[in-house]
Amino acid sequence: ADSLYVSEYFSQSAQKLSFYSWYGNAKLFHFHVPEDTVLLRWLLQASRGKGPECTDMEVTVHFRYGAPPVINPLGTRFPANATVRPSYSLSLALGGAAQNTTFVNITTPAAGDWFIAAHLPEAAGRIEVKGFSTPCPYIFQADMFVLRLTDMPVLEPGVAMPLTILSPAKPLHVKVFVPKHAAGMRLELRSCLTREQKACAVRVVLGSITLPQSFQRIVTCLGNVTCSLALDSPPWEKWLQIMVESLGTANGSVSVVMLASFTACRPGSASSFLNFISLNQSQTAPRAGGAGAAGSSALPAAEASHNESQQRSFCLQTQPVVREDLDVVSVRYRLLNGPSVPVSSLSPTLLLLNLNTGMDSGGSLVVNLLLNKTSLSLANATVAACVSAASPVLALNATRNCSTAFFQGYPLSMRTSSAEAMLIVLYPQTDVWFLSLQLLCPKGQGECKAAEAKVTVFAYLTPCFNDCGPYGQCSLLRRHGYLYAGCSCKAGWGGWSCTDDSKAQSVGVQNAATLLLTLSNLMFLPAIAVAAQRCYLVEASVYTYTMFFSTFYHACDQPGVAVMCIMDYDTLQYCDFLGSVVSIWVTILCMARVKKILKYVLFVLGTLLIAMSLQLDRRGVWNMMGPCLFALIIMIAAWVHHGVKRRHCYPSSWKRWVFYLLPGITLAFIAISVYAFMETNENYYYTHSIWHVLVACSVAFLLPPRDKHKKPWAWPQKLTCRYQICQNDREELYAVT
């Protein structure tokens, strides 16, 4: 009978794409493929806006099974000892058409988590002020269609099962469950006959497709003979799909007999009682010595001798490992029998690293091995190690190359000359991982039959390796409920963990950038002096506030070694932005020459409104342009009022216009142009310093002169001391009369 298929549809909301500068710019999509899926179809839709700012663009899409794709669009270097395998990717061009729709089909996909990452080309590095320009929106959406078989036949191990392929267009799908500790699997096809009882030709596909690498096993069976396929280290405790398709041209059925058998592996490990004792001892306070302590130390010695006598009958030796969840995407693995594990040549030592919670694939798995040189008596012996997913490598030698049935592991080796080995797996796929260790000798296993090595194992899962180093910041990213981490690099450093120094700034350049951005604020000193000399003490106080917080904000904002933060970074940034906008506000109102009581009311009210708007959106252009425009309207209205009242242009002096106002306005316009259109990530430290200098100089030019009826520093004249600064009004009146 025909099999029953069910189609399902999964969709996620569209995301706005960004130009790529670090992994946080890539938009991630997370899907879950159900079991017994025989066909997976991705619907990829990319579109762009219709404005004149929208140009031809190319969208890059990456696929990966089990974890987010590891990508490198910038061609930077990865950290040493990191494993990097290229991702499966394709490009969607947005040329003449404003939309691109692409389908990607995958037959017999692996069940579990699938990830898609999409991004635009490399970012130009230009710093755009929010509101000055409207970027073109590029939108990407991924939808998933699956075709699932509801009644997939189950192949029982050791039981021959007759099956029928209805036609070449309808392949046969069967699944078999791989038990734990399965060392090998053998699949046989017998009695392959067509409906006319003739010899047939079929193709057998064992396993599912995983991207970027797929390890499906394919064998073609011709004629009525037994056809077999053997697998070493099949994935433990998983369903394995088998697809059989007819290669005949006639539209007829084909009958086959299928048989699956497994080779069991007998593991050896310490007793559960001893593991329980060591776990309790590690989690409680140490007890006083005595008979109890002596008895507990005698038990492991007796157990060790017992295991050594029976080691030949085991295909592997398991070491108990405890998983400790420390934080988000942060796990530590602790060995119950101590950090050192014994490694022999008779059978591999196996450690299980559990990463199958579904939330562990967004970090980096770090495995650090250290060989105890004194424990290894043979100088030419090698301790081989292999880190693999889904199933362990049960025979470590040069011919196996650290590979299992459907996974290419990561090999490591240690010897007395190089006793340390390290492995970094970036975004490890969701699965159970295994660490296998075995002692190898160049002249054969007989040479090191009685030898044993001690290897200290440190294994942990961290969001970012080495916390992105001194020139990077580890950021925790989120897509719906899925969390993953990425490094944002500074000071010209790049790479996955900010370890690529090919474009890095030297320490001298970093110090020069910090000095330029901080010392350029000292150009506010002339403006403060001019304001104080003309009795604008409130304005001088605002300029002092701006100079202080701008100096220490830029000292704290620098990457690398030239950094000094006197308080929280967010507080310094807010105070710097607030002081900058309020300085412009009070300067323009001071130029308006309104009444003092009205001026100070506008000072306070405007400062409160500016503080509120900066809290809502700190980088919005209207937070600066809004107060400026409103203050300019007040100034123009006040100048028109003064001109009408005096019946001539205000300000009336041509020297005031030529030597003060026009230079100040010119400096202000140049400063705004530099700030809005010329700043990039590379030239920020000197273009922003120019902005500081130009704004401070324009303030010194634009401040109005002192009131003619007010003498400089008028406050000392009110002191009743010394006759030479006092006047005798009675004598003057008497002289007049």
UniProtKB/TrEMBL annotation:
Keyword Membrane: yes
Cellular location(s): Cell membrane
Alphabetical list of InterPro entries matching this protein: EGF (IPR000742), NGX6/PGAP6/MYMK (IPR021910)
Top-level taxon of origin: Eukaryota
Transmembrane as UniProt keyword: yes
Keywords, in A-Z order: Cell membrane, Disulfide bond, EGF-like domain, Membrane, Transmembrane, Transmembrane helix
Pfam families per record: DUF3522 (PF12036)
Disulfide bonds: 464-474, 489-498
Membrane protein topology class: Multi-pass membrane protein
EGF-like domain residues: 460-499
Listed GO CC annotations: plasma membrane
Coiled-coil features, chain-numbered ranges: none
Family: Belongs to the TMEM8 family.
The protein, known as: TMM8A factor
Gene source species: Indicator maculatus
